[in-house]
Design brief:
The protein is an alpha/beta fold. The protein has 10 helices and 18 strands. It has helices spanning 42-48, 66-69, 72-81, 96-107, 163-168, 176-180, 221-224, 241-247, 252-262, 280-287; strands at residues 4-10, 24-29, 32-38, 56-60, 88-93, 115-120, 127-130, 134-140, 148-154, 160-161, 185-186, 192-193, 199-200, 207-211, 229-233, 267-270, 293-295, 301-303. It is globular and about 75 Å long.
Length: 305
C-alpha cells in the first residue's frame, strides 16, 4: 500500500439511499489524516474502516449543503467524548460559523479542545493549509452555493542517502540532514563531495484533487493539470444532461472530459444520484472519454501513485 491514500467513506448525493452514504473522504498521508466533507454517517464509516479518530486534525468542507456537512456536529461530539485536547481545524466557505456555532453552544459546551475555523473565499484559488507534509489549495467550483474543491499537494521528500558512500567518506551524522536536503559535503582535507554522489533522488511528490459539487467547469483544468488522482462528481448520466445543468452538477462524461483535458493519471467518479440502481452506467459513459476511470464506493482505499 502506498503512503498516500484516499479512503472513500461515502459517495452518494443529497437524497439518502441504502446503496451509498453521504459524501466524505479521508486523505491519509503517512498516517496523518485529513477529512474532506462530513455527511451524515461519516463517523460510523470511520469505525467500519478502522480509521483512528485521534489522527484527524483538519476537516475540509466543500460547501454548506447538508449532505456534505450534517455529520460534523456528531463527529465533534465524539471527539470530545474521546478526550481530545488538540485543536481541530475546520476549513470551509464563509457561513460555516453561522451553521456550526449554535449547535456547539447547545450540545457541545465544555469541549476539551478548541475548534479553529478557517473561512475560505470559495471564489478563488488559494493556499488554505500547510504543514510539514502537505499543502492544500482551494479550487473554485461552479455550484448553487459558494463551493470549492481541494488540491492536496504532497511536499517533496528528502533524497535517499547512499549508505555505502556515507560510510566510505566517513561522513559525520551531524552532516546527514543537510546532505539529504541537497548540500554537498566538504571533507576534512577540503575535498568537496558532490551531493549526487551521496544520494539518490526521492520519489516525485504526489497530488490529489477533489472536485464536488460542480457543474461542468473547464476553468479548473489548469489548477488540476497532471494530478496523480482526480475525484470528480458524476451525479448524472448523459440522458439527464439538462437536469445536471439545471442543478449545477456534472454528468459522468463531463467528469471524464475534465480528466482528459487536464491530463490526469486516474479518475474516480462519485456523488451518484439516487435514481441509479446500478452505477455502472456512469462508469460506462465515463470510460468512453477517459478509459482510466473507476467508480467510488464505500470502503474503497485508493493509492495516490
Amino acid at each position: 500500500m502506498a503512503d498516500f491514500n484516499i479512503h472513500i467513506l461515502g459517495c452518494g448525493s443529497a437524497f439518502p439511499t441504502t446503496r451509498h452514504m453521504a459524501t466524505s473522504q479521508i486523505v491519509n498521508l503517512r498516517d496523518k489524516l485529513y477529512m474532506i466533507d462530513c455527511g451524515e454517517g461519516t463517523q460510523v464509516q470511520m469505525r467500519h474502516m478502522r480509521i483512528k479518530f485521534n489522527r484527524l486534525n483538519h476537516i475540509f468542507i466543500s460547501h454548506l449543503h447538508g449532505d456534505h456537512c450534517f455529520g460534523l456536529p456528531g463527529l465533534i461530539s465524539t471527539l470530545g467524548m474521546l478526550g481530545r485536547t488538540g485543536d481541530l481545524f475546520i476549513h470551509a466557505p464563509k457561513g460555516i460559523e453561522d451553521y456550526l456555532q449554535p449547535i456547539l453552544n447547545l450540545f457541545n459546551k465544555g469541549l476539551p479542545f478548541r475548534i479553529q475555523l478557517n473561512q475560505i473565499d470559495a471564489s478563488r484559488q488559494a493556499l488554505i493549509m500547510e504543514d510539514r507534509s502537505m499543502e492544500v489549495y482551494s479550487i473554485p467550483l461552479n455550484h448553487r452555493t459558494p463551493t470549492c474543491g481541494f488540491l492536496f499537494a504532497e511536499k517533496q521528500k528528502e533524497a535517499h542517502l547512499i549508505r555505502e558512500m556515507i560510510d566510505f567518506y566517513q561522513i559525520p551524522i551531524k552532516c546527514l540532514c543537510q546532505i539529504k536536503q541537497g548540500a554537498d559535503y566538504t571533507a576534512p582535507n577540503g575535498e568537496i563531495i558532490p551531493n549526487n554522489r551521496l544520494t539518490l533522488p526521492a520519489e516525485p511528490a504526489k497530488r490529489y484533487a477533489y472536485c464536488s459539487d460542480t457543474a461542468y467547469f473547464p476553468t479548473i483544468i489548469p489548477i488540476i493539470s497532471n494530478v496523480d488522482l482526480l475525484y470528480h462528481e458524476a451525479t448524472f448520466a448523459e440522458a439527464e444532461k439538462e437536469r445536471a445543468k439545471e442543478t449545477y452538477h456534472s454528468t459522468a462524461a463531463q467528469a471524464a472530459e475534465i480528466a482528459k483535458r487536464a491530463n490526469v493519471k486516474k479518475l474516480v467518479i462519485g456523488h451518484f444520484s439516487a435514481r441509479y440502481e446500478d452505477d455502472t452506467i456512469l462508469k460506462t459513459e465515463a470510460i468512453r472519454v477517459f478509459p482510466d476511470t473507476i467508480l467510488a464506493k464505500e470502503g474503497l482505499v485508493l493509492p495516490v501513485e
